[in-house]
Amino acid sequence: MTGGEPGTGNSFQIVGGGSRSRAWTKILANVLGIPLHRLPDGERGAAFGAARLARLAATGEDPRAICRRPAPIETIEPDAALSPAYAERQIRFRSLR
Q1: Nearest C-alpha neighbor of 9 from the set 34, 28, 30
Q2: What does the alpha-carbon distance between residue 51 and residue 54 come to, in Å, rounded to a whole number?
Q3: What whole-number percentage of the chain has pLDDT above 70?
Q4: pLDDT at 15
Q5: What is the DSSP string of 7-66?
Q6: What's this model's pTM, rounded to 2 decimal places?
């Protein structure tokens, strides 16, 4: 799948410290075979989400006003030539358990 738009289920948004690395995001896109959307300040995504939930619990505000989807700063597409190689290695990795 390529060209997935945020919110369609054909792609994912990536957050957390690893999202700062374009190389890591590219590897994940290749392994998963789907586009990944990098978000501004993505390394703070989990903490920001927790703060939003606390705000909602404390104030009773409308979630639609507080929890808005951020616009991606970049979309990383999987490389069709590399995805099969990662898929083979993923099968081997899973067999090691």
Answers
A1: 34
A2: 5
A3: 91
A4: 84
A5: TSSSSEEE-SGGGG-HHHHHHHHHHHTS-EEE-TTGGGHHHHHHHHHHHHHHH---HHHH
A6: 0.69
